[in-house]
From TrEMBL:
It is found in: Endomembrane system. The lineage of its organism: Eukaryota, Metazoa, Chordata, Craniata, Vertebrata. Residues 8-127 form the Longin domain. It is a lipid-anchor. This is YKT6B protein. GO terms for cellular component: Golgi apparatus. Belongs to the synaptobrevin family. PANTHER family: SYNAPTOBREVIN HOMOLOG YKT6 (PTHR45806). SMART domains: Longin. It holds the Pfam family Longin. GO terms for biological process: endoplasmic reticulum to Golgi vesicle-mediated transport; protein transport. Gene3D superfamilies: Longin domain (3.30.450.50). It comes from Pheucticus melanocephalus. One of its GO terms (molecular function) is SNAP receptor activity. Keywords: Lipoprotein, Membrane, Methylation, Palmitate, Prenylation, Protein transport, Transport.
Amino acid sequence: MRLYSLSVLYKGDPKVHLLKAAYDVSTFNFFQRSSVQEFMTFTSQLIAERSALGSRASVKEQEYLCHVYVRSDGLAGVVIADNEYPQRVCFTLLDKVLEEFSRQVSKMDWPSGSPATISYSALDGYLSKYQVQRVPV
């Protein structure tokens, strides 16, 4: 069971844009990592764009399960995990991250923010904390 990506996005009027993201692509071949990360960024934006305000959904994309939560204020979170990762845990993580993000980052910064301008460093910690490592038997 693995988490590959955790993203915070803003669903603005014209389109969705990424505010902050964390990725774990360590299980992929070195030469595939950048394209896998691009795929995850694109997929996160697409799923958030197609989701209604105030909705939660889980979408299967290739061998991944993408869990999206779009709050009524336009703040959205997407977790990309493997098929075995528990859905309930993903939505608990998204709730926690979006709540903390909205307290730490001013709502005025959401429409114009980008990963370079938004100061929120907790995503990498959450991604590793919620990572479930298989223990060899």
